[in-house]
Predict the structure of Tetratricopeptide repeat protein.
Amino acid sequence: MKKQIIIALALFVSAFSFSQKKELKTVEKAIKSKNFAAAKEALKIAESLMPSMDESLKAKYYYLNSLALYSDGNGNSKDINQALESLKEVKGEYKSEVKALKNNMYNNFLTKGNDAYNKKDYDLASNLFERTYRLRESDTTFLYYAAATAVNVKKYDRALKLYEELRDLNYNGADKVYFATEKDSGKEVTLDKSTRDLYIKAGSHIKPGERFTESKKPEIVKNIALIYISKGDNEKALDAIKDARAENPENVDLIINEANIYLQLKDEDKFKSLIEEALTKDPGNATLHYNVGVVNMNKGDLDNAQNSFEKVLSIDPTYSNAALNLSNLFIEKGNVVIEEMGKLGMSKADDAKYEVLKGEKNALFEKGAAILTTFIDKNPEANSDIFVQLKNIYNALGETEKAKEVGAKIEAMAGGE
């Protein structure tokens, strides 16, 4: 009797194993005929048999499951993500098949990702670039592309997750580029290493060299910080910047990014302090001088604001906003004088004082106008804001002919647009 039970049990196990193999054969056949819907249905039946499958059959199940869900690259987003997860479960056997499938997926995701990007479908591109990275995690650049394209479509929570992953991976993003100088033209050109070495050997190029492109770290940390600011989490935003600055204290971009966070937090004192720190490292940066000028102007420190705007124009004579603000400083000073004039009484002494103040006001307004005319002389195609302000000053001075002349210029500019 005992012998009969053992024989019956053996027959049951054999039949059960046959059933498992049969279901997987059905899946395999459906996949070969490109009937992925049927393959997925058959996989549901096979899944119920999973607990009793041996390791070999489990490996086959997960591999076939990946193929069915992937559907030659035509699966939906959810199915493809599940296919990638299923591939991770394939153990032992099917090593070469898994490698081939991953290569196929990688090329497909990358091609479709680039195509989506070129069509400005950044949401799709972001997902495809991330899948490309998940398949080959040595290609960290695609994780960066996934984050950057998520920002393009304002998917900030997704972008934050990807950027923080990049930060935790200590991703730098600086690429090594190879260059040489064309002997005939004297122009430096960037080439791949083998081509450059070939040209040097042939004698058509000279002065070979290599350099790294700029690190992506400042951008990554800045975007993490800005996303946290948009979420109202200023503490984490500042932590992100401070961590980066501790690692790279001489990086001016990081100082500016931290300053901009404080500006968004309306802490102008801290903003100004950081911009001034950045200026010690980059004294020729016109924008930094301009920002200091704006802060001083907002605080009513007109003399220091004037110094900053004059410095901007000495560095970059085309900086129109600096010219406008410098002119405005003198108009504001003139307006203060006008307020004094308004407080005077009707006595002879007050009348005399009025005339003195009027002269001071006019001198300040004329200085404001002179700044703009000097700017126009250096920049004949200056933007209309410069001309509009100059016209307003001339009207305030009662110089109607000059105002009409500038007004005609403004109309001519508007007609040419």
